Amino acid sequence: MTTIMAVVIVLSGLIFFHELGHFAVARCFGMGVSVFSLGFGPKLFKYKPGKTEYALSLMPLGGYVALVGASNEEDIPEGFCRKESFSLRPAWQRLLVVAAGPVANLLLAWLLCWTLAFVWGESVLLPEIGAVGEQSPAAAAGLKAGDRILSIDGVSVQSWQEMSDAIALSEGRTLRFETARPTSSVAESDSGQSMREAFTRLTFDVTPVKSVRKSIFGEDETTWLVGVRAAGTMVTRPLSLLAAAPASAAQAWQMISLTGQSFVKLAQRVVPLDQVGGPIMIIQLVSEQMHQGLAGLLALTALISVNLGVLNLLPIPVLDGGQIVFFLWEFLFRRPVNGKVQTYAMRAGIALLVCLMLLATLNDVWRLLKNVG
């Protein structure tokens, strides 16, 4: 029950934020909203302080914003006027209202990452070498396991990612590595001895070589390497509220980029179809993160929010992305897409989404059966 409640809270929160994006931008443009509902089905609770009715409905995994005149410009509920009709507004305004939902999910992911960075700090993989490949450029230069990279070509290196980026951008140019190597005094040192006294500073000239490695999607990619592996040493660095903002923005952008690439690779069949997951996978992931603490659950929520935002931006007619394409066409060519074309496109989009949902559910069930076996 605890897991189910967590899943409901997470998904309801994400959907609420998505619909809030549509609602906020629509109201900023003065468009009418007759209903803002969290959930579908019979209304358990409703409140109408003005023209808009706010409702909590029985089925929590969903929600909607009923825009005045969204389906028919002449369908104006009592209390509203024609100038508040969504359909009568310029295409660019309708486009922004529709895009606001997915963008709100991406914004939420950044806010969650910001919260994590400020409250729990930033986790960083240190540039500490765990292993050096035989006959590699690093071995030839004299680097050893246990060395910590301090700088490359005079530029301070604070993380393994910064070191990897500097090597990848070298284009084969020889780099000057400054390292800190543990000395024998570490084992003999008193507890009060400083780390500076326990390490010896050394410099090495390392020439990266062009190599082929597997990407995160299993594809071969060409890059520059020196032949070292990380020791896996992680540290958590506290961040101020302001310092956490750009750090979390970079993390959120990385999630958005990887998620977008995942959808592209899925369409290209680089990512196997059996990797697609659905509600059962989400329940399993939420259950796992709950046992690891609130930080893990918030990080997972940010990732799901990114997936929801990117998914809704796909140019599938029944999704927000498909509507954006229609409105963009209308904005550029000064005329709406033919009604019949929109109707057939919507049907095709619904059929595609149903197939994807069936595929995701079958994959989830198959994974459960394999785990049981």
UniProtKB/TrEMBL annotation:
Please state every residue range assigned to the domain named PDZ: 129-159
Instruction: List residues traversing the bilayer.
Output: 95-120, 290-308, 344-362
Compartments where found: Membrane
Please provide, in alphabetical order, the Gene Ontology terms of the cellular component aspect for this entry: membrane
GO MF terms listed in the record are: metal ion binding; metalloendopeptidase activity
Q: Which domain of life is it from?
A: Bacteria
Cofactors that this protein relies on? Zn(2+)
Topology relative to the lipid bilayer, per the entry, is: Multi-pass membrane protein
Top-level EC class as recorded in UniProt: hydrolase
Pfam families for the chain: PDZ_6 (PF17820), Peptidase_M50 (PF02163)
Q: What is its EC number?
A: 3.4.24.-
Q: Major location, coarse class?
A: membrane
GO BP: proteolysis
Q: Keywords assigned by UniProt? A: Hydrolase, Membrane, Metal-binding, Metalloprotease, Protease, Transmembrane, Transmembrane helix, Zinc
Q: Which family does it belong to?
A: Belongs to the peptidase M50B family.
Q: Output this protein's name.
A: Zinc metalloprotease
